[in-house]
Structures are given as C-alpha cells and as structure tokens.
Amino acid sequence: MKLTADNMKNKKITILGAGLSGVAAANLAINFNAKVFISDLKVNSKLKDDNITSEFGEHTNKCLNCDFAIISPGISKNNFII
Fold first, then answer.
1. Partners of residue 2 on adjacent β-strands
2. pTM of the predicted model, to two decimals?
3. pLDDT at 1
4. In what helix (H) or strand (E) does residue 53 lie, and over which residues does it extend?
5. 17-75 confidence digits (pLDDT tens)
6. Which of 31, 34, 52, 62 is the least buried, fewest Cβ under 10 Å from its Cβ?
7. Are 8 and 62 in contact (CB under 8 A)?
8. CA distances for 72 relative to 6, 18, 62, 82, angstroms
9. Confidence band for 76, pLDDT divided at 50, 70 and 90
C-alpha cells in the first residue's frame, strides 16, 4: 500500500519500535493526520511528541487496535505480537 496523506488521515497506526526509523515513521504519520500509537520493548526513547500515544517496556494488546501496523527493521519477526 502506498502511504499518502489521503489514505492515512484519521487511520489508527501502530508502530513497533521507537528507534530512529520508528520515530521517523511516527512523525510522518502525524504529519498525515493519522492517530499514532508506538510501542517499544526498551524503556528509553527519544520520542518527544505529545500527539503520539506510546508504551515502553512491553508490547501489549493495545498494539492490535489499529488499521495497520508499521514494523521497524529492528523488530524480530519472531516477536509474539507480530
């Protein structure tokens, strides 16, 4: 699916991974007026945006409440939430 401002507007997007690529994806989605939820197993993050809902230290079932998910390259394909 090609991501555009039109098809991302008001979509619920989960992003797994809050590293450089995850934060960049979250910022792009916010610019396209999406509702972003980002989840990372690590507790530390450089995420500093009040428009992004997030959880750190675990991936909960909140990750599943989305229209689609973006999986950062550092997330293992064996991760239980995937």
1. none
2. 0.86
3. 66
4. strand 53-56
5. 998 899 899 989 999 999 999 999 988 766 777 778 899 999 999 999 999 999 998 88
6. 31
7. no
8. 23, 8, 17, 12
9. confident
Asked whether 53 and 64 are in contact (CB, 8 A), the reply is no
Within a 13 Å sphere around the CA of 5, how many CA atoms are in the beta-carbon half? 3
Q: What is the pLDDT of residue 68?
A: 92
d(CA 55, CA 37): 8
Residue 46's Cα: distance from chain center in Å? 14
Closest CA to 4 of 42, 47, 34: 34
CA angle 77, 58, 1 (to 5 degrees): 45
User: What one-character-per-residue DSSP string does 2-51 give?
Assistant: ---HHHHTT-EEEEE--SHHHHHHHHHHHHTT-EEEEEESSS------TT
